[in-house]
Design brief:
The complex is a heterodimer. By secondary structure, chain A is of the alpha+beta class. Chain A is built from 18 helices and 19 strands. Chain A folds into five domains: 94 residues, Uridine Diphospho-n-acetylenolpyruvylglucosamine Reductase, domain 2; 103 residues, Uridine Diphospho-n-acetylenolpyruvylglucosamine Reductase, domain 3; 109 residues, Alpha-Beta Plaits, CATH 3.30.70.2190; 91 residues, Alpha-Beta Plaits; 36 residues, no CATH class. Chain B is of the alpha+beta class. Chain B is built from 15 helices and 18 strands. The longest helix of chain B is centred in the middle third of the chain and has 15 residues. Chain B starts with a strand and ends in a 15-residue tail after the last helix. Classes of the chains: A alpha+beta, B alpha+beta. Chains A and B meet through strand 9, helix 8, helix 9, helix 11 and helix 17 of A and strand 1, helix 1, strand 8, helix 5 and strand 10 of B.
Chain lengths: 495, 404
């Protein structure tokens, strides 16, 4: 993984940068000591570490605007950082860049039930949004598995998902408004409490832009009334194909489950050993189907799913009869990652999305790759939306094993693209999948994306080195290369 | 005006290349059924994507469909219906409102205008169902973005950039949309004779309930009387309507629960399947205001200030959708079609929101900002985005904002 060469001229003016930051930030908000900076050296992609030039912890939009304007003036790069739980290295510091930490902006500013929305600062955790409205019967729908720790600003930057995406959408489908600061310090408001903002959908472009376009300083999210009830089925299958067939069967029957999760044998065993959820151990695939909504509807759909699952040859089937039992079904799945962490010194979590119907083919090919690379793989699959998380088990202390793991991971993601899927479903490109972007996009596609950045950040100072395999100057990207000018199709229909 | 109707993506690219080389702006349309929405163009040439038509990929179990941008929405809906599926954002047919034929709209035009119907409140907007694209930018280059899956964060979400861009950034050639199961049953709970404020309060109560309503509208008495559905027009009073969709047992139980929740204030009635479908089509296409003289505006605002804003503008007629978050307004006063009155009222409510002049004659639409004017930094950012996609300004210049 090659990061851009740090700019010696910027590193040389570090002292002046610190002095100027302290003109408007309290001393404690400007972190300069090596030991203190270590707290920010990595994010959830812990294989990569770097110390930032300086870290700042502002407390207001005004302070953030001043930081950005100063950095723009001095030509210093900025890396925004939320809770640091991202899994693709999007918050990896730059040696010649300021890490802008947003955790101090952690207030729920307003809950507006009349308009069914909440206005929060970016450092508020995902779960805290739901907790703020829980007593009144509401919640915030996207629920990434890191929801206890991850921040809503980071969720917007990564367009985070969760297990309920098929029915309730991902972050971008649950936002109403944003306040952001551009690289030059300008504060811009997008949307508000109404649906469908006027003009270009800049909020939609910002969402999932991985901190490359603007710094998010305030978020307005939709909140939803909590479903009346939820019930789950826990279904075992003796083949992966039968499990896949059941997933397709549920969808074909016109059912949109609140959640539909699948685990393969390796993941089932790891989870069961870890938390004794009562999972069957003699199956190749285990499916959790959760239905939520009005009780009468849930009961009806549970019965329909049961019939479909039995028709697909389910070898075991349990239906939750209580809230405790439903949560027990989920316990193993929700702890699948730490469970896998127990059976291997290290694991590497992949994040491709595939068309649901390609699951059996992809898992079969993954078994081949596993033996080819000599690395074990456990799979958890958001079957409802096609998001596949293969966990490659490895030992970082064995020389060369991390490299082999990354190589195998790249093969898996190429496979996802090959079967009609995508590189990343919810973890982001960051530095991790940056060099694989060419598998999905050609140079023209990538140039059209990078020119969006030119509109927001023409000097390329905001989080450079992430997402795009090659850095191009905006002046270069702006050149026109139009060939033709004549209409070469004499038979082109014209009227 | 010369009109080009390319039959494939490469021809489409050639037309744009020709326009770029000659710096001749193009009027970009699908079937042109919504050309009267936005500022008038008076452009020397037009490109129609209507021949880029046909569904090229559809897997019901993948809940997605790919089609040429020029494919009629009606063709897509018919194909989806064969598998009991639908476009859940409920594409509205604005043709008749805009003086164009009904049932002409294309997928590309609907996405490019980001138009959604009453189910917007529960299922999201057109942009939320737009998964992938192929398009030709103003650089005469073919590019793609997104994919066929609902969960995808590979690179910037250019689908969002193009949805609602009215063809000013790129010409869509191929579109992949999310599709969802169609409801087995539909009913609509009606409450009669409520004031605007009481009606909106009831809609808010319904929206905040766990009964998952999928349509929330309020019609004043004069608007209700325009309906072809007898239960709506027959009582000469206002109608507050809440749609319930789902499986049969669920709809029956939730309809009953919704009647209890909203009842006790006035007479409650219920529309069954056929009437429900007919009524919500009227709401989606703004049918109650079509025959009205005057300028027609679409206000997107927080529901809590809907009646305050309506009270401040002295309009000729209006009705509410999206639980009050969408208001269709008819204005007959003022030389500016009511622009200043409406926009001042929204600003004065200090809760955000915006107004679009949906129907007005070309002279008015050239003179008055059709879309809400933006703050200076936002307008500058939008202009920079346009310049990156279309540096020579050949794609629908002036359709959204006047050329400076």
């Amino acid at each position: 993984m090659q990061m851009p060469e740090p700019d010696a001229a910027v590193i040389a003016v570090r002292g002046r940068l610190i002095a100027r930051l302290r003109e408007f930030l309290p001393d404690a908000a400007v972190v300069v000591g090596e030991d203190d900076l270590r707290a920010f050296e990595t994010d959830g992609l812990t294989a990569y570490k770097a110390l930032p030039l300086v870290a700042v912890l502002p407390e207001s939009t005004t302070q953030i605007s001043k930081v950005m304007a100063l950095c723009a003036e001095m030509g210093v790069k900025v890396v925004p950082r939320g809770a640091g739980t991202g899994l693709s290295g999007g918050a990896l510091p730059l040696a010649d860049g300021v890490t802008l930490v947003l955790t101090k902006l952690n207030k729920v500013l307003e809950v507006d039930y009349a308009n069914r929305c909440a206005v929060v600062q970016p450092g508020v955790t995902n779960l805290a949004v739901s907790e703020a409205v829980d007593a009144d019967g509401f919640y915030y729908a996207p629920d990434p598995s890191s929801q206890i720790a991850c921040s809503i600003g980071g969720n917007v930057a990564e367009n985070s998902g969760g297990v309920h995406c098929l029915k309730y959408g991902v972050t971008t489908n649950n936002l109403l408004g944003l306040e952001m600061v551009l690289m030059d310090g300008e504060v811009v408001h997008l949307g508000g409490k109404h649906l469908d903002a006027e003009g270009y959908d800049l909020m939609g472009i910002l969402t999932g832009s991985e901190g490359l376009l603007g710094v998010i300083t305030e978020v307005t999210v939709r909140i939803l009334p909590k479903p009346e009830t939820a019930r789950a089925l826990l279904v075992g299958f003796s083949t992966v194909e039968a499990g896949g067939e059941c997933v397709s069967g549920v969808i074909s029957a016109g059912i949109v489950p609140g959640g539909m999760e699948m685990m393969d044998k390796a993941a089932i065993h790891a989870a069961e050993d870890f938390c004794h959820a009562g999972y069957p151990l003699d199956v190749e695939a285990l499916l959790i189907v959760e239905l939520d909504g009005p009780a009468v509807e849930v009961d009806e759909l549970v019965e329909r799913v049961r019939v479909i699952a039995e028709g697909c040859g389910a070898s075991s089937l349990r239906i939750s009869e209580s809230e405790d039992e439903r949560l027990a079904f989920w316990a193993g799945r929700k702890n699948a990652f730490p469970a896998v962490g127990r059976i291997s010194p290290d694991y590497y979590c992949m994040d491709g999305t595939i068309p649901r119907g390609q699951l059996a083919r992809v898992l079969a090919r993954m078994t081949e790759l596993s033996s080819q690379y000599g690395l074990r793989v456990a799979n958890v699959f958001h079957a409802g939306d096609g998001n596949l998380h293969p966990l490659i088990l490895y030992d970082a202390s064995v020389p060369g094993e991390l490299e082999r793991t990354e190589e195998m991971g790249a093969e898996i993601l190429k496979l996802c693209v090959e079967v009609g899927g995508v590189l990343t479903g919810e973890h982001g490109v960051g530095i991790e999948k940056r060099d694989l972007m060419g598998e999905m996009f050609n140079e023209i596609d990538l140039a059209h994306q990078q020119r969006v950045k030119c509109a927001f950040d023409p000097d390329g100072l905001l989080n450079p080195g992430k997402v795009f395999p090659e850095l191009h100057r905006c002046a270069e990207l702006g050149k026109m290369h139009v060939h033709g000018g004549k209409l070469p199709f004499p038979d082109l229909p014209r009227f | 005006m010369e009109t080009f109707r390319p039959v494939d993506e490469e021809q489409l690219r050639e037309v744009v290349a020709w326009a770029v080389s000659n710096e001749l702006p193009l009027d970009v349309v699908g079937a042109a059924s919504k050309r009267a929405l936005g500022r008038p163009g008076n452009l020397p040439a037009r490109i129609e994507t209507g021949s880029l038509s046909g569904i090229s990929w559809y897997e019901p179990t993948e809940l997605a469909l790919t089609a040429g941008a020029g494919t009629p929405i009606a063709d897509i809906e018919a194909r989806l219906a064969e598998n009991c599926q639908q476009l859940a954002f409920e594409p509205p047919d604005l043709g008749p409102l805009l003086g164009a034929p009904a049932v002409a709209a294309t997928l590309g035009g609907t996405i490019a205008c980001n138009l959604s119907g009453p189910r917007r409140v529960s299922a999201g907007a057109a942009r939320d169902h737009f998964l992938g694209l192929r398009a030709i930018s103003g650089r005469a280059e073919i590019f793609k973005s997104g994919g066929r899956v609902v969960k995808n964060v590979s690179g910037y979400d250019l689908c969002k950039a193009l949805a609602g861009s009215y063809g000013t950034l790129a010409v869509l050639s191929e579109i992949t949309v999310k599709v969802l199961p169609a409801p087995e049953k539909t009913r609509t709970v009606l409450v009669y004779a409520q004031s605007d404020a009481d009606g909106i309060a009831l809609l808010g109560k319904a929206a905040a309930s766990p009964l998952s309503p999928s349509g929330l509208a309020h019609l004043t008495a004069d608007m209700a009387m325009r309906s072809a559905v007898e239960y709506i027009s027959g009582n000469a009073c206002s109608v507050t309507a809440v749609r319930i969709e789902g499986t049969e047992a669920s709809v029956l139980a939730r309809t009953e629960a919704m009647r209890r929740l909203l009842g006790g204030v006035a007479a409650v009635e219920e529309l069954h399947g056929y009437n429900s479908v007919a009524f919500w089509k009227e709401i989606a296409s703004a049918a109650p205001v079509i025959v009205q003289d005057g300028s027609i505006w679409r206000l997107s605002i927080p529901p809590s200030v809907a009646t305050e804003i309506v009270a401040a503008i002295d309009c000729e007629a209006c009705f509410y959708d999206w639980a009050g978050g969408l208001v269709w307004v008819v204005m007959t006063s003022g030389g500016d079609g009511g622009a200043a009155t409406i926009r001042n009222a929204i600003a004065k409510a200090r809760a955000g929101g915006h107004a679009t002049l949906v129907r007005g004659d070309a002279e008015l639409r050239a003179r008055v900002p059709v879309f809400e004017p933006q703050s200076a930094p936002l307008a500058a950012l939008s202009a920079r985005l346009k310049a990156q996609f279309d540096p020579k300004g050949v794609l629908n210049p002036g359709r959204m904002v006047a050329e400076s």
